[in-house]
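## Example record

The block below lists the input lines for one assembly entry, exactly as stored, with component labels intact.
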Amino acid sequence: MSIWEYANPVKFMRSSGAVLPWVVAGAAACTVGGLIWGFLTPPDYKQGASVKIMFLHVPAAMMAINCWFMMLVASLIWIIRRHHVSALAAKAAAPIGAVMTLIALVTGAAWGQPTWGTWWEWDPRLTSFLVLFLFYLGYIALWEAVENPDSAADLTGVLCLVGSVFAVLSRYAVNFWNQGLHQGASLSVASGERMSAIYRYPLYLCMAGFFLMFLALLLIRTRTEIRIRRTAALQAREAR
Amino acid sequence: MIALLMRDLRLATRAGGGFGLGLAFFLIVCTLVPFGVGPQAEMLSRIAPGILWIGALLACLLSLDRLFALDFEDGSLDLLATAPLPLEGGVAVKAAAHWIATGLPLVVAAPLFGMLLHLPSQAVPYLLISLLIGTPALSMLGAFGAAITVGLRRGGLLLSLLVLPLYVPTLLFGAEAVRRGAAGMDAITPLVFQAAITLLTLALIPFAAAAALRINLR
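Predicted structure tokens for the full assembly:
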């Protein structure tokens, strides 16, 4: 029993279909519960009610980065072991990641307006998220542009590898360029920095909810991609 | 490798090869900016480093889609792929030819265009050095983008979408070096970072670009 068994599309469809309702239910419960809990927290003494944007902003930003990381791993698996499910999962993940990045940017702008007095600031974190968004757009556009599915998977895989290097480079290069308004990490395991428990626990719940939501969307989208692939294969067989 | 380099250079300088087109584009960008932002000298001299770098970058981008496309169409790319020279080497040479044909003229002409934009004279050496260090990275990354989009119809727009985000670190450090030079500050640190990025692209991008070309030639 190895993890590579799930690279078999049939096996993947069966097992993902079995867990999907649970993941969807968990995602809905955690996200809705976490957001309601977050909404009921008392206003912050300095930021007022605007602190509640955090419960959308932080999980979305977290998933935006982790989604790219997942695409990187999936692309590597495709390039090294040539499992089609992996390539399709990377393809399915990209729009989710792009939307997460967009949510993080938009909620960040809405949060920045009352607290910093500006919608946008060329701050390192904000800027690198914008660059990340551009990388997502390029990746999605390349998938759309290449007709042969295997070539598309290969090319986007290579692009993802190179893009990862340059996304990280850009992230640290912008630090050098401008000092930011954005605060540093407020939740850090290593340095033991913590915000108040009233905010922390709903935030954890929202993070779990967003993670499960990402997982659910990813599974649904990957299953759709596999079905599209099957339909295409059937049509090709009919046409012959 | 030398033969390939000379061939590419000859093709670039021949009529219709687009040699000097990048330079003209660079000049147009530098001419249009004062119309856009107003002719005040102190403002122009403040934004000149950024404009010069962005102009160089766009001029570089302009000629990228020709890098592999013509060879792909007439089949010489297939010959290159089956030649005894590894495709990685071929890619590096073609990127080098692209740099000599577009990057190097930009470097040489940049101080002149800097004068148009009232770039402070103490910044000119930094502009020269940063462009000299940075433009090879632009050509290399551009070769990667061109290799990915070579088989596509309407690849040009996609090419810019893919390549421009990759240019972020180079542009950032390059313009920062010139800005610091203009302000009389120490500009060594951004230049060193920029050199590091260029060396990284020189070392890694030929492999990525050659892999992309092999996929497209399949």
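The radius of gyration of chain A is 20 Å. The CA atoms of residues 5 and 11 of chain A lie 7 Å apart.
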